[in-house]
Write a structure and sequence with these properties.
about 450 residues; globular; Rossmann fold; Alpha-Beta Plaits; disordered C terminus; about 30% helix; six-stranded parallel sheet; 22 strands; alpha/beta; 3 domains; 15 helices
Length: about 450
């Protein structure tokens, strides 16, 4: 697969990092010689310094033979024009663009990106995607990561293990016998900065981050098995009234009418705009690091604070202050990669990374075969993949224990018609089943081949 990536920032770099490990032929374009030098020094990719939307630059990047262009520069207009040029001149089959400005995304202008106007196949809005990700985390307190799969029938959940987690120090093979109604498969463990694809004899330890796949109908019971029985928050403080905060508040107002929202915004003009645009939310103009402002917002009685300003330091400190004043849980947006390992020890419950969410969303549209969706976890540990099993797949017709699955791969769930099956060793995958699989990064390419459409199928 030949891919052109426009933009060598954090998102562009991480997409290139994922794809370069899978033998993709990648060319990355950016105006910054420093960013291009950095990315070509660390990854097996071609780098070009230039303006990503200029036809001559794209021609030198061999756009005429590209299978896909992914435009993730900081300028929406550059991303859109790059896709337009790739379509009109070079006939690139798949075009993906990151678009931040909400004006372009207004439903009033929904046909702007149609094939007759500006033919972009996939529009990624980080602000919208991040707001959705935070909303999912608010619905399942105790989870630091949530991904709905199979149209919501199955969920992939990430939880922290604490000393109160009931299933610590128990071999995973015994969980089914001890908890026969526990409809989950533990697919990944993150321990001391290392990813582990668990084996039956492995045990969970205090401090582990655990990823499991569960039947959504049994999610409350699954969370209880990890010691999380918190109720959904009814009082939420949002710090930051930017696009993410506004999108999140709008979604909560529409979908969760029982939730009371207070928004703290430091910019007076922005606070007034947000206050006029929302119906039920209370907007407070002030500094979230000011004790009086946090008290006015009701930090002492709020269940959750969501810190999503555009300043990492403000988000971290405001989250810790809100928890100190009595708020039960903190969801904190952090853009910089350097803070990630630090914040968990400080007491922040959930870290949200716009970069990781954007990369994961884009990767869903890059994967091949009969793959419906892909969700990256722990930035490089692995991917949870939702794929349709065809008659020609080597996974079909044999018990899972006898199937030739690559090392680092676990089957988390099978959806057959409307039934969710939590697989065991003797479970047999049938043609047309929807299969939820966790694959460590090194095994992803092999999983794509298992679900690829072979010529003899036609």
């Amino acid at each position: 697969m030949q891919v052109i990536i426009c933009g060598a920032g954090q998102v562009g770099y991480n997409i290139a990092r994922y794809l370069s490990g899978e033998d993709a032929d990648i060319t990355i374009i950016d105006q910054s010689p420093e960013l291009i030098a950095k990315i070509t020094d660390s990854l097996d990719v071609k780098g070009m310094v230039g303006f990503a939307s200029h036809p001559d630059v794209l021609e030198r990047a061999d756009a005429a033979n590209a299978d896909m262009v992914i435009a993730v520069t900081y300028a929406d207009e550059v991303n859109m024009v790059a896709c337009q040029v790739c379509h009109s001149i070079f006939e690139v089959p798949t075009k993906i663009a990151r678009v931040r400005s909400q004006s372009y995304l207004d439903v009033m202008w929904s046909d702007l990106f149609s094939r007759d106007n500006m033919p972009i196949d996939v529009i990624i809005s980080p602000e919208v995607e991040v707001a959705r990700a935070i909303e999912r985390r608010l619905q399942i307190p105790g989870a630091f990561d949530v991904h709905p799969l199979a149209n919501g029938k199955v969920s992939m959940i990430g939880v922290h293990c604490t000393p109160e987690t009931p299933i610590l120090n128990t071999p995973l093979r015994q969980l089914t016998a001890l908890f026969p109604e526990l409809h989950i498969v533990i697919v990944g463990i993150w321990r001391d900065g290392q990813g582990i694809v668990p084996k039956p004899e492995d045990e969970l330890k205090d401090g582990d981050d655990v990823y499991f796949v569960a039947d959504t109908a049994h999610l409350a019971r699954a969370m209880a098995s990890f010691g999380h029985e918190e109720k959904e928050a009814r009082r939420v403080i949002i710090i930051g009234g930017g696009n993410i905060g506004f999108n999140l508040a709008t979604t909560i107002e529409k979908s969760h009418p029982h939730v009371a929202i207070k928004i703290i915004e430091v910019n007076k003009q922005r606070a007034e705009i947000v206050a006029q645009s929302l119906e039920r939310s209370v907007v407070i103009h002030g500094d979230a690091l000011d004790a009086e402002i946090l008290e006015e917002a009701g930090a002492a009685t709020a269940e959750t604070v969501v810190a999503i300003s555009n300043d990492d330091e403000v988000n971290i400190l405001a989250s810790l202050l809100a928890k100190r004043y009595g708020c039960q849980r903190a969801v904190t947006l952090i853009n910089g990669a350097s803070y990630g390992a630090l914040v968990g020890t400080l007491g922040i419950d959930t870290v949200v990374s716009p970069r990781a969410i954007t990369v994961s969303t884009i990767l869903q549209h890059v994967r091949r075969g009969r793959i419906r969706s892909v969700h990256s976890i722990s930035e490089g540990f692995g991917e949870v993949i939702e794929a349709e099993a065809l008659e020609t797949s080597s996974l079909v017709g044999v018990p899972i224990r006898d199937s030739d699955l690559p090392e680092g791969v676990l089957v988390g769930a099978i959806v057959r018609d409307e039934e969710v099956i939590i697989p065991r060793g003797d479970t047999v995958v049938q043609a047309n089943d929807l299969v939820i699989i966790f694959a460590a990064t090194a095994a992803v390419k092999k999983i794509e081949k298992i679900f690829a459409v072979k010529l003899e199928f036609f």
